[in-house]
Amino acid sequence: MTPKKTYIHDYCTIENNEIVLNGTSIFKAEPTTFGDFSKQAYRNFDIQYPKFFKMDALSKLAFLGAELLLSPITSSEKENNIALILANNSSSLDTDVKYQESISDKENYFPSPAVFVYTLPNICLGEISIRHQLKSENSFFIFDAFNTEFMSHYANILLDSDKADSVLCGWVEFFDDNYKAFLCTISKEENTKYKNQTIKTLYNK
Amino acid sequence: MEALKEELKNKIITTLNLEDITLEDIHDNDPLFGDGLGLDSIDALELIVILDKDYGIKLVDPKEGKTIFQSIETMAAYIQANRTK
């Protein structure tokens, strides 16, 4: 059986204090920390989700990208069969280091449960799933660099086998206040916007 | 006691990252969980850490938390009666 063609629908890039949606800059802040930038972005898009402020930086980064791509296509009225496939290089190391620092002094040993719960990279998938009420397949991979062929192949398998109606996939890297997120939505529904583009060409734009 | 309550409110806002909540939003007898401040199970664990770290109180039985963390009023009363620092 010939696999059915799949199409990129929307994509979003977050880096250097700027959010770009489908090639257009939609939010830019003056140079600042990611914590401040993410808070400004949350306010700018009028997101109503106080749990955002409890998330670690990696989850905030993934959440913001997913919010822009999934909010227009998800509904609380129906099941949203959207698979999530994300990857990065540093795993949850940024939060791991913070947690380790909180337990390194035996005389002042007060590990924070709220930090500990983010010491796995796939927690950001859970945050996105809770927000958009997804019960679909999700996976998080650690790569040296964004493996676009793998991502594209995995997304196509999920769509061809009807495991998902759409796939949100991409790269969400965060360590020591250096970050880049690239997320896109893919489905079998025809879309000619990016017919000559691939995940790789959009990521490298 | 009033100073302790205000101190607790400040600690809760800061430690639990309650970004959109101000001191005035937290009333002494409001429930901290459920319909009140809407804290969750991880927040409950953070409150146990606050008791230990800032007031020298180790909760031996976590079930006690249900009574202690009902409100700022109950939390302050428990701390005042049991604090070691």
CATH architecture term of chain A: 3-Layer(aba) Sandwich
Unreliable sequence segments of chain B:
none
CATH topology of chain B: Non-ribosomal Peptide Synthetase Peptidyl Carrier Protein, Chain A
Strand fraction of chain A equals: 15-25%
- Give the CATH H-level superfamily of chain A: Thiolase/Chalcone synthase
How many strand segments of chain A?
7
Tags for this entry?
heterodimer; A: 205 residues; alpha/beta; Peroxisomal Thiolase, Chain A, domain 1; seven-stranded mixed β-sheet; 7 helices; B: 85 residues; mainly alpha; Non-ribosomal Peptide Synthetase Peptidyl Carrier Protein, Chain A; 4 helices; 3-oxoacyl-ACP synthase (chain A)
Description:
The complex is a heterodimer of chains A (205) and B (85). Chain A contains seven helices and seven strands, in the order βββααβαααβαββα. Chain A is of the alpha/beta class and 205 residues long. Chain A has one domain (7-203): Thiolase/Chalcone synthase (Peroxisomal Thiolase, Chain A, domain 1). In chain A, strands 3-2-1-7-6-4-5 form a seven-stranded mixed beta sheet, sandwiched between helices. The relative contact order of chain A is 0.23. The mean pLDDT of chain A is 95. Chain B has 85 residues and is mainly α. Chain B has four helices and no strands. The longest helix of chain B is centred in the middle third of the chain and has 15 residues, at 41-55. Chain B is globular and about 30 Å long. The mean pLDDT of chain B is 93. Classes of the chains: A alpha/beta (205), B mainly alpha (85). Chains A and B meet through loops of A and helix 2 of B.
